[in-house]
Amino acid sequence: MSQSIITTLRQIGNGSLVTSMENNLQKLVQAVDESGKAGKLTIVIDVKKATKGNAMNIKGQTKLTAPSTEHHESLMFATEEGELVTENPKQQKLDLNVVNANKGEIKNVNEAR
């Protein structure tokens, strides 16, 4: 009778592979739940014949590909000194003033004729 794959997985690395699988699956589920985007947990089992006899070297590993997070970006400008600023240093500044609407009489163009 053959041994189940679950039993074999539990024996790889004295159980550390299964622990890694459980931890990474939990992280993946949380990341997918938070982001709403898909992720992936890959489990790789390498089997290599040992040098003598019928012994096999079994190596397992997990790879977590969590969903990408949102990217945050800003448009910034480089100065000659190598710094980043939010206003374009090469653009001319305009001396703008706030217009107070309460000054003077407001006329309707159609009524002035």
TrEMBL record:
This is Uncharacterized protein. It comes from Nitrosomonas aestuarii.
